Amino acid sequence: MGDLLAGRNILIMGVRNKWSIAWGIAQAAYKEGANIIYTYLGEREKAELEKLTEGMGTLHAFPCDVTSDEDIEKLFDWVKSEFGVLHGLVHAIAFARSEDLQDSFLNTSREGFKIALDISAYSLVAVCRHAAPLMTEGGSIITLTYRGSVKVTPGYNVMGVAKAALEASVRYAAYELGGKNIRVNSLSAGPIKTLSAKGVKNFSDILKVVEERAPLKRNVTLEDLGKTAVYLLSDLSSGVTGEVIYVDSGYNNMG
Ligand SMILES: CCCCCCc1ccc(Oc2ccc(Oc3cccc(O)n3)cc2)c(O)c1
């Protein structure tokens, strides 16, 4: 047990089950003494959270559908009234319609494009706007991204466009919040078998390629991601903001 995050209130948005990257981050932050607050989408995710957090003390959780400004407002009103101050936030939420994650990118519909960008990119902007006033002692905000934002990954399609918008949003949010000592960064994870990954065609192909070609010759684990998230959430990364940190076994540096 470390104390890198002792006494810090950290809001984690996006735990769906034990395979979730957000759950790997929650476990690592908990081990470093953080006081974790969760948001969930529906009753199924709430039940999963209750199961996952058994034996970890009181479960602090609140519902939030990030497509609703009212939900986001209610969430932060509740966090303010229950905890007063927030020190960290993990945004691990994204969505695109599965038909937009299959073959032709050019066939992405206007509605599908809007949905992907609203949930996967705009939601970070709204969350930063509401979290910042609670980060009165400074803070660290991290979101999850993927290499498909900067390099074409067949099948990732509109999600790659959404992640490009997300990464640019991280830079602009970091610029505006730096003066309040609030840092905003993205963690670019290598492919991991999550519930979301099931929605991306060609996903399974890429796991094998990483294992064969990446410098570390293995895929990353939830533990790998959790440790880097603790670094970004803690004072160890005090000089880092507006950045994309790759945790992908070095794959992104291959030719
Ligand atoms: C061909 C790309 C292989 C590597 C993809 C790695 C990856 C896996 C999962 C990722 O997160 C999501 C999140 C939501 C998402 O949209 C979904 C997920 C399931 C069902 C569905 O209808 N949409 C797709 C990917 C992600 O951003 C990146």
Explain what this protein looks like in three dimensions.
One of its GO terms (molecular function) is enoyl-[acyl-carrier-protein] reductase (NADH) activity. Belongs to the short-chain dehydrogenases/reductases (SDR) family. FabI subfamily. It comes from Thermoclostridium caenicola. Helix 4 (110-131) links the parallel strand 4 and strand 5 (139-145). The chain has a single domain, classed as Rossmann fold (3-Layer(aba) Sandwich), CATH 3.40.50.720. It is an alpha/beta fold. It has a seven-stranded parallel β-sheet, sandwiched between helices. The chain is built from seven helices and seven strands; from the N terminus they run E-H-E-H-E-H-E-H-E-H-E-H-H-E. 40% of the residues lie in helices and 15% in strands. It has helices spanning 21-31, 43-52, 69-83, 110-131, 157-177, 203-213, 222-233; strands at 9-13, 35-40, 60-63, 88-91, 139-145, 182-189, 244-247. Bound molecules: 6-[4-(4-hexyl-2-oxidanyl-phenoxy)phenoxy]pyridin-2-ol (F9T).
